[in-house]
């Protein structure tokens, strides 16, 4: 099996172009010199030193990306998303692509040590790079471990706008990721693959969680109901009815969207109780994105 499951060299070229456009002359020159030195020496020590030192030379400002650049990255690795990244994170992800993959054992050992020694921004870069790392199955355990992190920036790097978890995590780890995102109040609509990886076990976990919250007099993120769309049953229909009758408009809209997308006839029939909302769904003016826009946390 080839180490990379996409065109790594082309990706490296495109990321370098984004770095150069967003960077300043001295930072770009330093990165180019470090790359040249790495080509000549290929030492792990020099590689690690550069990975650590990158922010001091590139700065930490937020990058901009053109629509054309975004399109190129999406075509190469669907779901790979760099908008909102800082330049040092992007440069670190690019730098990871420069490590030789001729010896799998050495590569995995080098990355393992980087993960273990990394401070939080380095960890965020490492987890952001998951969709681009070679031998993708090798990072499943590391990702599962990362989900248990209590560092917000690391959690976000794994959970939000990262296609790796949906593509490679087994169901228990995926469900753990979604529940951790809800517990830590992440914007769950930013989880890549949320609809495709919904499952019956997760639906049960979400309704149990809602019951606990309601018993404590607390609210539930309306977006969590999205994952019940294809798993509405007689058991959870009373929960959907309760949300549909909520005084909070985003909750009513979320319940209606579940009913509209469900193939369960009793759920479909509930839409007759909210004809105005049903009409908005039919017209395309009410979507999960519009609910997310109402409820997104800053």
Outline the secondary-structure elements.
Layout: H1 8-22, H2 25-41, H3 44-58, H4 67-76, H5 87-96, H6 104-117, H7 120-128, H8 140-147, H9 152-159, H10 164-168, H11 171-183, H12 200-215, H13 237-244, H14 249-261, H15 265-270, H16 275-283, H17 288-295
Helix pairs in contact: 1-4, 1-5, 2-3, 3-5, 5-7, 7-9, 13-14, 14-17
Name the features.
mainly alpha; 17 helices; elongated; 298 residues; 0% strand
**pLDDT < 50 runs, ≥5 residues:** none
How much of the sequence lies in strands comes to under 5%
**Distance between the terminal alpha carbons, to the nearest Å?**
42 Å
In which range does the helix fraction lie? 55-70%
Largest sheet: none
Basic shape: elongated
Number of strands: 0
Radius of gyration: 22 Å
Mean pLDDT value = 96
Oligomerization state: single chain
Secondary-structure element string: HHHHHHHHHHHHHHHHH
Please count the helical segments: 17
Estimated structural class: mainly alpha
Protein name: EboA domain-containing protein
Organism: Chitinophaga nivalis
InterPro entries: EboA_dom
């Amino acid at each position: 099996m080839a180490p990379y499951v996409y065109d790594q060299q082309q990706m490296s070229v495109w990321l370098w172009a984004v770095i150069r456009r967003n960077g300043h002359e001295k930072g770009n020159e330093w990165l180019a010199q470090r790359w040249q030195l790495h080509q000549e020496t290929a030492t792990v020590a020099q590689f690690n030193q550069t990975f650590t030192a990158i922010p001091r030379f590139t700065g930490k400002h937020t990058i901009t990306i053109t629509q054309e650049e975004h399109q190129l990255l999406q075509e190469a690795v669907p779901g790979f998303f760099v908008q909102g990244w800082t330049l040092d994170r992007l440069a670190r992800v690019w730098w990871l692509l420069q490590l030789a993959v001729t010896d799998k054992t050495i590569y995995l050992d080098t990355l393992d040590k980087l993960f273990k020694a990394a401070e939080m921004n380095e960890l965020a870069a490492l987890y952001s790079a998951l969709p681009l790392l070679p031998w993708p199955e090798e990072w499943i355990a590391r990702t599962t471990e990362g989900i248990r992190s209590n560092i917000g920036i690391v959690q976000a790097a794994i959970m939000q706008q990262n296609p790796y978890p949906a593509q490679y995590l087994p169901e228990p780890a995926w469900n753990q990721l979604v529940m951790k995102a809800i517990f830590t109040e992440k914007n769950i609509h930013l989880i890549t693959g949320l609809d495709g990886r919904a499952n019956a076990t997760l639906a049960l976990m979400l309704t149990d969680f809602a019951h606990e919250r309601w018993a404590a007099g607390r609210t539930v993120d309306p977006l969590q109901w999205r994952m019940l769309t294809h798993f509405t049953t007689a058991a959870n229909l009373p929960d959907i009815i309760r949300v549909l009758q909520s005084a909070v408009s985003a909750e009513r809209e979320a319940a209606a969207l579940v009913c509209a997308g469900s193939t369960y006839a009793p759920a479909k029939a509930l839409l007759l109780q909210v004809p105005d909302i049903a009409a908005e769904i039919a017209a395309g003016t009410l979507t999960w994105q519009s609910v997310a826009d109402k409820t997104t946390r800053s």
